[in-house]
Design brief:
8-stranded mixed beta sheet; Peptidase S9; Rossmann fold; 4-stranded antiparallel beta sheet; hydrolase; alpha+beta; serine protease; Peptidase_S9_cat; protease
């Protein structure tokens, strides 16, 4: 039990008392860079929680090991990508047997991608990670002349990346070291300088700098500074290397500024001034820009074009019109084709448009539910793009696709070394009736021999925020549950864009409660149709999906046999009231601004999981946290667990696992991450009683 130190907070004439506010370290910004300075009392509490969790899960140690070995056995240890062509080389990545981190390499452009003898090693992730508790690579980006590469790493989990410059011929790093970046950089065409974003003291990417190789970071030129703390910022480049893009956005408004690479000392030029609720993104097509936007009430987005010489909004001309129910997600342009990824009826598809004739066609797929990934190409003058395809039963397949001839070439199929027979499994898409009559899609995976009489345990996963759609893709880890008789289910609830932009809009701000009710309706439907029973449903969600877990625990604890909440965003009201936290101002358009608006304060207060804990019998709950997590700070799940344990009227265990050497994504290595999944699944198996 955590110590109680009441702290009162009054807003809009409403006073709340928080007994566990002391768990928020006052020096959290500095602690993210040096965890040794964490307040000893807070550290002692977190370590006590970890000890309690270890004791409670001690009887699953053998199961965790078994699950881990199963999951590891489904991963090809020495796997490698199919290199992508760019100039004189093709660039790829690979793992070695037993390795946790990727190795980046290149081969001659037309070399055999499977011939390891011709690979030139550029960066060995395992070597760079040696001796570090946490290590996450930000990849490596080569200059146009293929002489140098920018690579970045985060060795604390706090998402402050250090950038280094590597001589790709010698394999040695130059003296340049750039600290506190957002990760990655964009090369200038001459390969002598690059652009990057810097994180400020509140962990926000607020400044774009221009770094010249060989100069100290202190000499870098400030290219643009975003003064509004409510906006994220990123920097990118065009395939033609004509422009540097500065992308400024929150969750519903965006703005672009362009810097011509013909004059790197110039000031970036505004394309279209930000307007509340209007989003746009750009890609270059030679003499035109293609602009994906929701302007003029195009809720599901349309594609416009404008001259490169005058890209302002007054010159935007419609090319691909807005079609309600057809959500355009992203777009790319190449010399002869414009392509975009869209979603209709909950399923993605890739559209190709010939830029000369205007003729359009789709890349078709047959399964009932599936997932697509669109990689495009690294070169502008090409007819060949790359995409990936998978389903809940079909391992990932990588294709090259010729947009002119429409020929599809299978490059690689994901190997499952321990074996996988798709015919042993069934995947289905069912629909749950929500409280207001909406149909909520639910994707299911289970073995053919699983009894559908209500006796099967079920892991029901949900997210439902920021417009993120959870794909119905192949997942080797969940097979360990499915092979034990579980039904694995994904609830495609409001807050995502699974059924178009309206589906997202109906799960945010004052309508946020729809997200939670949709998830509960999904559980109800699975029980009604005999897939499982309430006591056999283990709910799982992470981050904003962890908020979902906290909300359904308060709203319908009797309908879940257990809950797994990974890095859960559960202290919503306090976080949205703290404008010093990294994500708070940019998140106000998603949740509301309780500082300025009493109405929005009331919305959030009505569902915020931490604020709505009451005297009721909560099911077994497992919360997972990362000490250096800048997205969902460690004190949110810590406070939540403390208050749950104080108020529950039942005897079910409420556990907290804090990773003292990681952030939002947990451990960084590919097998280290599997250890965490095995731990979560061991909790699910234990709760379901099928060990």
């Amino acid at each position: 039990m955590a110590a109680k130190k009441p702290l009162e907070d009054t807003r809009h004439g409403i006073t709340r008392t928080d007994d566990y506010a002391w768990l928020r370290a006052d020096n959290w910004q500095q602690m993210f860079k040096d965890t040794s300075i964490l307040d000893p009392e807070i550290r002692a509490h977190l370590e006590a929680e970890n000890a309690y969790m270890e004791a409670a899960m001690d009887d699953t140690k053998a199961l965790q090991k078994t699950l881990f070995n199963e999951m590891k056995g489904r991963i090809k240890e020495d796997d490698s990508s199919i290199p992508m062509k760019d100039g004189a080389y093709a660039y790829g990545s690979a793992f070695v047997t037993g390795g946790e981190q990727p190795r980046y390499f290149r081969i001659p452009r037309d070399g055999n991608p499977h011939d390891e003898s011709i690979r030139e090693l550029l960066l060995d992730g395992d070597k760079e990670a040696a001796g570090k508790d946490y290590f996450r690579l930000g990849g490596i980006d080569h200059s146009n002349d293929h002489a140098l590469g920018i690579w970045g790493y985060d060795d604390k989990g706090s998402e402050y990346f250090t950038l280094r410059i590597r001589d790709l011929t010698t394999g040695e790093d130059l003296d340049d070291v750039l600290h506190n970046t957002a990760g990655g950089g964009v090369w200038a065409p001459d390969g002598k300088s690059f652009f990057y974003t810097l994180q400020d003291d509140n962990h926000r990417p607020s400044k774009v700098f221009h770094h010249i190789i060989g100069q100290p970071q202190s000499a870098d030129r400030l290219v643009y500074e975003e003064k509004d703390p409510g906006f994220f910022m990123g920097v990118g480049g065009s395939l033609l290397d004509d422009f540097i893009y500065i992308d400024i956005h929150d969750h519903e408004t965006s703005e672009y500024r362009l810097l011509s690479t013909s004059d790197l000392t110039a000031e970036p030029k505004l394309v279209a001034e930000r307007e509340d609720g209007v989003e746009y993104s750009m890609t270059e097509g030679g003499d035109v820009f293609y602009i994906l936007t929701n302007a003029d009430d195009a809720q599901d987005f349309k594609i416009m074009e404008a001259p490169v010489t005058a890209p302002g909004r007054e010159n935007w001309k419609e090319l691909v019109p807005h079609t309600p129910g057809r959500l355009i997600l992203s777009h790319m342009a190449f010399a002869r084709h414009l392509i975009w990824l869209e979603r209709r009826d909950g399923l993605p598809r890739i559209m190709i448009r010939d830029r000369r004739s205007g003729e359009e066609h789709a890349i078709d797929f047959a399964e009932e539910a599936y997932s697509l990934g669109l990689s495009g190409a690294a070169e502008y003058d090409t007819d060949v793009i790359r995409f990936s395809y998978s389903s809940m039963t079909t391992p990932s397949q990588l294709y090259d696709y010729n947009m002119a001839t429409r020929e599809r070439v299978l490059l690689k199929t994901q190997e499952v070394p321990s074996g996988h027979n798709p015919d042993d499994y069934i995947t289905r898409r069912v629909f749950a009736k929500a409280h207001d009559g909406e149909d909520v899609p639910v994707t299911l995976l289970y073995r053919k021999d699983t009894a559908l009489d209500g006796s099967a345990p079920c892991l029901l996963y949900g997210y439902g925020a920021y417009g993120v759609t959870i794909p119905a893709g192949f997942n080797t880890s969940c097979l360990s549950l499915v092979d034990r008789g579980f039904v694995y289910a994904i609830a495609h609830i409001r807050g995502g864009k699974d059924k178009g932009f309206q589906w997202y809009d109906d799960g945010k701000m004052e309508k946020k409660v729809n997200t939670f009710k949709d998830f509960i309706a999904s559980a109800d439907h699975l029980v009604k149709e005999g897939f499982t029973s309430y006591e056999n449903i283990i709910a799982e969600g992470g981050s904003a999906g962890g908020m979902l877990m906290g909300a359904i625990a308060n709203m319908a604890p009797e309908k879940f046999g257990g809950i797994i909440a990974a890095v859960p965003f559960v202290d919503v009201l306090n976080t949205m009231l703290d404008d010093t936290l990294p994500l708070t101002p940019p998140e106000w358009p998603e949740w509301g601004n309780p500082i300025e608006s009493e109405e929005e304060y009331t919305w959030i207060a009505a569902y915020s999981p931490y604020d709505n804990i009451g005297p009721k019998s909560y099911p077994p709950i497992l919360a997972l946290s990362g000490l250096t997590d800048p997205r969902v700070t460690y004190w949110e799940p810590t406070k939540w667990v403390a208050r749950l344990r104080e108020h529950t009227t039942g005897s079910a265990p409420i556990l907290l696992k804090t990773n003292m050497a990681a952030g939002h994504g947990g451990k960084s290595g590919r097998f280290q991450r599997l250890e965490e999944v095995a731990f979560e699944y061991a909790f699910a198996v234990k709760v379901a009683g099928v060990i």
